[in-house]
């Protein structure tokens, strides 16, 4: 991204938290795609253009896989996981007395009066995505709200027929849709950009410095992150952060541990409880069909946290996928979410759940499994347990079912290429999703 857009650095910690490694070989685990064909995790990762995936279990990295030039030390655009980071940062600022979630937005940004964010719109409405805004977040549209938004951030080439603008001037032009704030979940990226602007006014420093000072460094991040900024230095808080996968692993582990990382309470535990128990998942799911393109059709970034199992998965790939592509390999481009759960079981229990060839004994299956290879993390190859396989398959089937539900409108990489020249946000390594 730094070769295409201006960015602001998010400084790492001087004392990074340790990540232990206990690798489990998962690439040969097989599952059935929606057509019933079997595919291995390794093949699925490769055919779905996945750039990287890290799976941690109870604080240990158990599976790590990289491709397309991504390494454990390099940063990758994390798209709308940036929103999760912004929401988490809000809890820290509230706990430190720097932010009032129930205050009107205009108490921090008076110049937003007259826009949808004026009047009764509060910081909490931004956090909850419940602003009554007139905005169609259709990522496939070639004109309209999303294109105007991208131009303001510098993520779209300038259009000579459109007057130049910047992000914050654009935010002031957004208008209400007639619905009251706080009643309906409406996923709009600009809400998070306004939220970052509120943080800057509350703290008196830039968003990148706020994130580094209050979250990235206390969490024990090993690498610098960075965030794209517009022509006037305003951060794209909604989807512009680039970070390493291992630091995302630290972020997920901190959330699993109720806000504790690097032997300190980074995020207040009451904010974690609020995130886990006071959200409205039904409102989110019900709204997605009306948001233009469903979220799971877009270039993917995932942080999957299953605290009851102690498992967290982070995955990135830059292209939409098509599970219904014609051809002899139905296993092409399935989306995979791999994770692990509890400790080992007996060998026979494990072997009974491993994929095996006709006539192969359980002992032969186990021997083949142990010889299967190693992850990039290296080290001792651990025996995958039955719970690893069961949870892995259940999560993969969940991802596949969610993908299949929205397939009629999905576009493959070849279809995107046929549309003509790609924009900055559709490059092979930094394809934007704006979500």
Alpha-carbon Rg, integer: 22 Å
Structural class: alpha+beta
How far apart are the termini?
17 Å
The low-confidence parts are 286-300, 319-355, 369-435
Q: How can the largest sheet be summarized?
A: 5 strands, mixed
In DSSP terms (H or I, runs of 4 or more residues), the helix count works out at 14
Element-by-element helix/strand order: EEEEHEEEHHHHHHEEHEEHHEEHHHH
What is the number of beta strands?
Answer: 13
Average residue pLDDT: 76
The amount of helix comes to: 25-40%
- β-sheet strand percentage: 5-15%
- Mass-distribution shape: globular
In order across it, which strands form the biggest sheet?
2-6-5-13-12
Structure overview:
The protein is α+β, with helices and mostly antiparallel strands. It has 14 helices and 13 strands. A five-stranded mixed sheet has the order 2-6-5-13-12, with helices on one face. The chain has a four-stranded antiparallel sheet with strand order 1-8-9-7. Helix 2 runs parallel beside helix 6. The longest helix is centred in the C-terminal third of the chain and has 20 residues.
């Amino acid at each position: 991204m730094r070769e295409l857009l201006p960015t602001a650095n998010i400084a790492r910690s001087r004392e990074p938290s340790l990540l232990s490694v206990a690798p489990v070989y998962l690439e040969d685990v097989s599952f059935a795609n929606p057509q019933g064909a079997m595919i291995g995790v390794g093949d699925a990762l490769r055919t779905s253009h996945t750039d990287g995936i890290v799976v941690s279990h109870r604080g240990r990295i158990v599976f790590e896989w990289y491709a397309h030039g991504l390494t454990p030390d390099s940063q990758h655009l994390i798209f709308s996981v940036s929103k999760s980071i912004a929401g988490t940062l809000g809890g820290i600022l509230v706990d430190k007395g720097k932010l009032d979630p129930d205050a009107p937005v205009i108490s921090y940004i008076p110049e937003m009066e007259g826009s949808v964010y004026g009047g009764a719109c509060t910081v909490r409405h931004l956090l909850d995505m419940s602003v009554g805004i007139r905005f169609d977040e259709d990522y496939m549209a070639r004109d309209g709200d999303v294109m105007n938004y991208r131009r303001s951030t510098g993520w779209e080439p300038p259009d000579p027929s459109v007057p130049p603008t910047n992000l914050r001037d654009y935010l002031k032009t957004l208008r209400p849709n007639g619905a009251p704030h706080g009643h309906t979940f409406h996923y709009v990226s600009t809400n998070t950009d306004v939220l970052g602007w509120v943080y800057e006014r509350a703290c008196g420093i830039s968003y990148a410095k706020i994130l580094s000072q209050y979250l990235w460094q206390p969490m024990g991040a090993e690498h610098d992150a960075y965030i794209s900024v517009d022509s006037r230095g305003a951060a794209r808080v909604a989807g512009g952060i680039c970070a390493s996968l291992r630091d995302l692993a630290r972020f997920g582990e901190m959330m699993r541990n109720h806000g504790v990382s690097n032997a300190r309470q980074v995020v207040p535990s009451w904010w974690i409880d609020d995130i886990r128990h006071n959200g409205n998942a039904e409102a989110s799911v019900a709204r997605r069909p009306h948001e233009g393109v469903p979220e799971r059709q877009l270039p993917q970034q995932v942080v999957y946290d299953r605290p009851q199992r102690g498992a967290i998965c982070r995955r990135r790939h830059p292209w939409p996928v098509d599970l219904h592509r014609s051809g002899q390999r139905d296993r092409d481009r399935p989306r995979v979410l791999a994770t692990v759960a509890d400790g080992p079981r007996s060998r026979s229990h494990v072997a009974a759940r491993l994929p095996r060839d006709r006539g192969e004994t359980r002992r032969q299956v186990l021997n083949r499994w142990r010889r299967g290879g190693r992850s990039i993390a290296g080290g001792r190859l651990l025996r995958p347990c039955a719970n690893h396989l069961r949870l892995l398959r259940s999560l993969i089937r969940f991802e596949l079912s969610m993908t299949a539900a929205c397939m009629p409108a999905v576009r493959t990489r070849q279809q995107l290429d046929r549309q003509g020249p790609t924009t900055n946000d559709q490059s092979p390594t930094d394809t934007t999703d704006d979500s």
